[in-house]
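notes to self, project folder thing:

trying the whole complex as one job this time. last attempt i did each chain seperately and stitching them together was a nightmare. two parts in total, labels are on each line so i dont mix them up again. if this works i'll redo the older ones the same way
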Amino acid sequence: MTSVASDRGAASGRLFIGAGIVRLYVLVLAAGFLLLTPVVTLIVTSFNVAPFGEAFQLGTANWRAALTQPDMIVALLNTVSLGVARQALALALGAVLAWLLARTDLPGRRWLEVGFWVALFMPPLPAALAWVLLLGGSSGLVNSALYALPFVDAPVFKIYSWWGIIWVHMMGATLAVKVFLLTPAFRAMDGSLEEAARASGASLIRTFVQIVVPIMAPVLVVTSLIGLVHSMQAFEVELILGAPAGIDVYSTVIYRAMTQEPPLHGLGSALSVAFLLALAPLVVLQQWYTRRHAHGVLTGKARSRPQALGRYKWIAFAGVATLVCLMAVVPLCFLLMSTFMRLFGIFDMPDPWTLDNWIHALGRGDTLRSLGNTLQLGVMAALWAMIVFTGLAYVTVRSRSNAARALDFMTWLPALIPGVVLSLGLLQMFSSVALFRPLYGTAASLVVAVLLGTVTVGVQFLKTSMRQLGRELEEAGWACGGGRFTVLAKIVVPLIAPSIAVVGLETFAAANAAVGVVSLLGAGDNQPLSILQLNLLTSGQLESASVVGFVIMTLTVGSALAARRVADKARLEAAA
Amino acid sequence: MQGSANAAAATAQAEEPDAEAVLRFEAVSRRFTGFAAVDEITLSLRRNEILTLLGPSGCGKTTTLRMAIGLERCTSGRIVHRGVVVDEPKKRIYAPPEARDMGIVFQSYAIWPHMTVFDNVAFPLRVRKLEKSEVRAKVDAALEMVGLGGLAERLGTQLSGGQQQRVAIARGLVFNPDVLLLDEPFSNLDAKLREQVRVDLRILQRELQLAILFVTHDQTEALALSDRLAIMREGRIEQIGAPIDLYLRPATPFVRDFLGHWVKLSGVVQGQAEGMTRVRLADGEELAASEGALAPGADVVAAVRPEEIEFSAAQGAKPRNVIAGTIKTLLFLGPHYEARIAISNGDTVLVHLPRTEEWREGQQLWLRIAPTSVRLWPAASAA
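result (full assembly):
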């Protein structure tokens, strides 16, 4: 390990010398400015007690209001309890799923993994709508079917509830992201560690519990801490399902403060900053733990066969397949169904089916305009992501200077900021920082928002690909007289082109589904489909919202599948 | 050398069903579509012996070892451990690894990084639900046995490669299995340590009277450690026997060329005289061999171990069984020289020259070959 680190240290001297170091600092400052400004403006705004639209006036009234609001305590407790419960469930289930997919002879595991990938990109808002159709109140399909049972006289499932929120999240990205992060880690584990336990006399289950789980503990803890931070940021599902049940979380309180008339920017900012401060210990804990357990897993080149599940094989298959079906297939099918319903979720009326929703939705000017906006936003964000993220990843991988390390930290920062808070910070930045004011209310501001929302994952993904490139490939380029930029463009980029394409497609998918991060920016002419859907939902137009949601889901799932195809093809070619 | 002892043991062996066998492979195969990783091998591992599977990579040796403990399943044939069938696909019998009671040491050692040395070694005992005090006593004894008495509380990741390997051996032996499987256990150690561990393993095996199935691709290791040696090729056992028998009397050209080096000279059998076979070499010189019943006129390859050749700078008085050569390159290695010699038939051979004489590149020298050192092979077998 140490030799690798010193290799890199030596290489950093090779990579950035003289004028190079100046250029690096300029890059870091520029990125830092863009990444930090939203946070700084939030802090400044939180101390502005002037009424909306008037000149700055310093004061602590916002903070006093934020910290003394009684419903904030309840919202905070809800945020924590929802987050912890989801992570606990997702961790237990995710570890089992990752192990089944990565290390056993589970039938059809390749296809099932693709199913989880689709679920990872399933946009939460449309998916929540599909679950409302199935489990919402007494008219929910499943509930009304259960009425047929003699002892059932009230809805069995209540989607507008604490457990309803947990369910929709679990069936969405919460569990899928665990599977996505853990499966490769489980796959990389040296199989002889398991085989040694079997040879020592341990059964399959004992091996999983006593050997696999403890060895994977660092990865499990880190993904849980990251997941916990993420679940605290959840927004749209809580907004749609929590409001009717009177369940508030931090992000919905902030959102309401910002969208009421006149908007309480100062209070919203104070709440956001308070929330960031509350999250900070979690972030520090995660960083500390990651550093302490950096040894990770002892991996080996020893070949290993998948563990035979024996008599559990088909039981496990049935369980995982059902889950994939619930996560990836059910939302898509029922959302499609709801787009043809005269009244959302009402089946027991004469002639419930109609094409009107589609005709209305497509006939409305703002739907088509929003679709255009969404496509434009997706394409622009994808293009910029491919360029900017590649540059950021390259610098953070290949330079070990302090500036590069600071840059690495800053690419993590946006992941820690809840989408709504980031949206608020950007709103403040675009409206109050002179340099950015020309962008206020433009499509470009949305592109910036989406990029900030996806920078962490995108850069991490590209860093992993770049690390796998042998240094010699670049060094040979330099030795041949290629400059840094030439080597990056002619050698590095072509070699990791599939990964860059995957990042582009993922950003496109994220831009389609983005709600939180653009929620306060995307109004009027620039409104993308996701915000149109949010507005339709909050104003009770569920049928039109279904149509818009289905379009979003199709675009998102389509690009996610395309990304998977590109990645798989590249992997196959690399293997051959 | 231990050669004579091995040779004595070798004369008593035969691949018949074996009363001494602890582990038996009976016509065992592991086939994939269109390809057999292991092809109908029959093999017995006896009490108190080290049996080595040696071969190039992909010959099926590791698959064979993994089938022994059930990490892979055979596709036909059967495997018998202590008289009990543990794998027989035809009768749908298969005992999983945890039910087989065999110790195994992996190439990567597979020391669990989240456990201390003690916990690693205690694991098989705890799985078997032994009393706490008994676990402690047995683990202490096992660690003492491999010379790691003081390191019980270290984490697996805080050990050197050699120490990890000892922990792996202790873990494999702590529950007193009668079979220990070793999958290339020395390949991650440096050369010095490897020699030491080899001797230690030998002593341990003799003390505990273990049956060890040992997989390696390193022929020095295989020759040094084995009581019996099986050379594998493309999923089959090419030859099995005492190392010295395989070394001196290879049964097939593959075994001949796999173990050590030969100087090979092609020629034609002239006839038999005085219990010798006379061979005329390609360049007209004549070579007598004390073996061989090949008919006159047959094309042959005469193979000689380079270490059995005597080299001299002067031709000598009675030049029988002597061929001429020229030193092409000469490297001084310390104990001896390594020389590339062009011999009179045009071939180049790599040999060691003693320090006792002065050599230089370009010099002519003479290779004296004792008739007992010559092995004759039909020419078709030349590799």
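what i see at first glance: The interface with chain A takes residues 69-72, 96-104, 106-108, 110-115, 123-124, 127-128, 157, 168, 171-172, 175 of chain B (CB under 8 Å).
need to look closer tmrw
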